[in-house]
Amino acid sequence: MEKLAKKRTYLTLAALVLGAAILAAAALFDWDSLNSYTAVNNSSLHYVRAVVVRVEEQNLERDDADGALWLGTQALTVRILEGEKKGGSRWS
Q1: Under a CB-based contact definition with an 8 Å cutoff, are residues 8 and 16 in contact?
Q2: H helix or E strand, kind and range, residue 60
Q3: What is the rounded CA–CA span in Å between residue 58 and residue 39?
């Protein structure tokens, strides 16, 4: 009987330690990270103003879900209005 009581005491103690470890892990986990996603660090990314000079080519089609939207790609020549490349033209 004494061996059974000792075994039960060890099992109870092991369950308490395991439970405390799970609670500690849950408390230390960064739960806020589940609701945020950062694919790329773009903190140094900035945009400058430009004017479209010419549409070189385009591949556009109306969106099936919303006919007011056009989806696709365009290659444009733009005149850059500010920044270190100001005044230049760029085709992209």
Answers
A1: no
A2: strand 50-62
A3: 28
SS3 label, residue 13: helix
Close Cβ partners of 49 (under 8 Å, ≥ 6 residues apart): 80, 81, 82
Three-state DSSP state, 7? helix
pLDDT digits (tens, 9 = 90+) for 39-80: 777 788 888 999 999 999 999 999 999 989 999 999 999 999
Please indicate, yes or no, whether the overall pTM of this predicted structure exceeds 0.70: no
- Quickly count: other Cβ atoms within 10 Å of residue 89's Cβ: 13
Alpha carbon dihedral 15, 21, 23, 29, in 10-degree steps, equals: -150
Is 80 exceeded by the pLDDT of residue 5? Answer: yes
